[in-house]
Amino acid sequence: MSSQKRRIMVVRRAVLFKSRSFRGFLPAASADLRNLILSEASYLERASAEQDPAYKQPIGYAVVLDPAGTKVFAYRRAPHEAYAERRLRGLWSWGVGGHVEEEDSGAPDPIAASLRRELREEVGMSGNEPLWLLGYINDDDTEVGSVHFGLLYVAKSRSDSLSPSSPELAEGEFVSPEKIEKLLAAPEESVEAWSRIAWPAVLSFMKAGRM
Fold first, then answer.
1. Residue (of 133, 142, 160) closest to 63 by Cα position
2. Beta bridge pairs of residue 74
3. Which of 162, 190, 16 is nearest to 96 (CA)?
4. What predicted TM-score, i.e. pTM, was given to this entire model?
5. If you count Cβ atoms within 10 Å of the first and of the last residue's Cβ in the chain, which end, N or C, has fewer?
6. Are 165 and 135 in contact (CB under 8 A)?
7. Mean pLDDT score of the chain
8. Domain map (residue ranges) of the chain
9. Where are the alpha helices (DSSP H) in 5-44?
10. d(CA 203, CA 40)
11. Which of 164, 95, 71, 93 is nearest to 123 (CA)?
12. What residue ranges in 29-168 does DSSP mark as E strands?
């Protein structure tokens, strides 16, 4: 089945932001939007959902740390048609994730199930690693962000070395927080918006040593 015809999870914008609207990052402790999404979600064909800002597409978005919790897996998305989402091609990122598909709906937590699948497919992780929900990302200032809603997780790798296992990722490795800061500051490097938004919360989590 074409990726555009696959049915993916959506939630009505009006329902998601009924109690609280925000832009940027919202800590998980501030609102239980995960359970709201799970209780109010429905499924639409992806092609339709991508064109309708009345809906938000929940995306589990995991930043992967090394076993010691001191480095972050950073990667560059493929710059050509190997990466399906043309609006993100060639950008640096430290978030792994994807759409919640209808096939995930039978799981107790379809968002976590989809995220574990993406971790297996994109970077070769087992998919059984622990996940920590840090909060939520909403960025209506970009074309991609206007129809997507991020649930930001941290995942801990059991291996000191990860590499892209999907052609959608051009290159990737564990890097220090200092390298992340340099990527964010360098005018010649393009970093996707969600990774920029996520970084302060991830860095705070790492410094707190909560793993």
1. 133
2. 173
3. 162
4. 0.90
5. N
6. no
7. 89
8. 7-208
9. 13-16, 33-40
10. 31
11. 164
12. 42-45, 55-65, 72-77, 92-93, 96-99, 131-138, 148-156
What is the token pair recorded at 74? 């950073």
For residue range 131-144, list pLDDT tens digits in order.
999 999 999 988 88
Architecture of domain 7-208: Alpha-Beta Complex (3.90)
What are the helix and strand counts (H, E) for the chain? Answer: 6, 10
**Helix (H) / strand (E) containing 116:** helix 110-123
pLDDT of residue 170: 74
Contacts 24+ apart (CB under 8 A), 21-24: 22/136, 22/138, 23/138, 23/139, 23/140, 23/141, 24/137, 24/138, 24/139, 24/197
